[in-house]
Fold:
Amino acid sequence: MATERTLILVKPDAVSRGLIGEIVARIERRGYVVSAMKLMQLDGGRAREHYAEHKGKAFFDDLVTFITSAPLVALAVEGEGAIDGCRQLIGATNPLDAAPGSIRADLAQTIGRNLVHGSDSAASAQRELAIFFEDKDFVSRRHDLERWIKE
Ligand code: DAT
Ligand code: MG
Structure:
C-alpha cells in the first residue's frame, strides 16, 4: 500500500443539492486529506477530455452536457490506497447497485445523477488530475497524513 492522490468531483447535481459538505465530510472522516480544491464550471473541451474513455457511448453527449451545466467542485484527495478507498466510499456507478453506506446508495437514485466522480486507477488519477489542476495548486498534507496513518 502507498499514499495515493486521486481526483474527486462533486458533480453539479451534488453542488445543486447542497451536498458539498456532506461528501467532503465523508472523505475526511475516512482520514483522507484534501490537497487541492476548486469550485468551477467545466468547459466542453475539458469535459470531453475527462470522459474520453466513454466517447462513442450512447450516454456520452448527455454526460458532457450535464457535467458542464452548472458548477462542480474538483478535489485532489490523498491517503493510503486513496484511489480504491474513495471508489469504495462513492459506491457502484448505479446507485441501485451501490453498497449501503456508500455515497451513491445513501444519497442518489439514478446512474445519470450519481453525485460524485472518483478516478478508477493510478493512471486515470494522474491523467484526470492534470485536467483540473496545475502543480502549483497542490499543498503538502504530508504531516497530517503521517500523523494519522500507521501500517
Ligand atoms: P463511474 O462514475 O462509477 O466511474 P463510469 O466511468 O462507468 O462510472 O461512467 C462515468 C459516468 O457516466 C457515470 O458516473 C454516470 C455516467 N454513466 C455511466 N454509465 C451510464 C449509463 N449506462 N447510462 C447513463 N449514464 C451513464
Ligand atoms: Mg469512471
Remarks:
- The chain is about 40% helix and 20% strand.
- The chain has a mean pLDDT of 97.
- The chain has one domain: 3-150.
- The domain at 3-150 is CATH 3.30.70.141 (Alpha-Beta Plaits).
